[in-house]
Amino acid sequence: MILISNGKEIATDVAFACSLFKQVKGLMFSRKIPDSYALVFVMKKAQKVSLHMLFVNYPIDAIFLDEQKRVIQTSSLQAWIGICSCKEKVKYIIETSHGKSDKIGITAGDKIYFENRCH
Questions:
Q1: What are phi and psi of 94, to 5 degrees?
Q2: DSSP secondary structure string, the chain?
Q3: Domain range for residue 10?
Q4: Residue 118 placed within a domain
Q5: What is the rounded distance in angstroms from the CA atom of residue 25 to the CA atom of residue 33?
Q6: Residue 56: which CATH number?
Q7: Which of 1, 3, 45, 62 is most solvent-facing, going by the fewest CB within 10 Å?
Q8: pTM score, two decimals?
Q9: By C-alpha distance, which of 58, 64, 66, 65 is closest to 99?
Q10: What is the tens place of the pLDDT at every residue in 52-71?
């Protein structure tokens, strides 16, 4: 599985958080993730969401997507104290290595390509 935005690779090692338990756990208690990793949250329906960094001891980037997998917003979250929310409803959230959004140049309106593995 590869996540792609504007022809640029976001991650080659992709995991999916389909259940509520996996979404609540997210990256908590994990070691620093490699640059090639991404965790994709798949909501049952588009909804307003917020993220926290409790028990995550390294910074990450979060990419919020709508139902068409278009970027609504990106956020960088600090270790332990980071928190953010999206003012619009989202269907998918991608958590990936810190700085990835800037490195690739991901901006609102970009389309992210991946197969939803939560069906």
A1: -110, 125
A2: --EEETTEEEESEEEEE-SHHHHHHTTTTPPPPPTTEEEEEEEEEEE--EEE-TT--S-EEEEEE-TT-BEEEEEEE-TTT-EEE-SS-EEEEEEEETTHHHHHT--TT-BEE---TT-
A3: 3-113
A4: no
A5: 15
A6: 2.60.120.1140
A7: 45
A8: 0.94
A9: 58
A10: 999 999 999 999 999 999 99
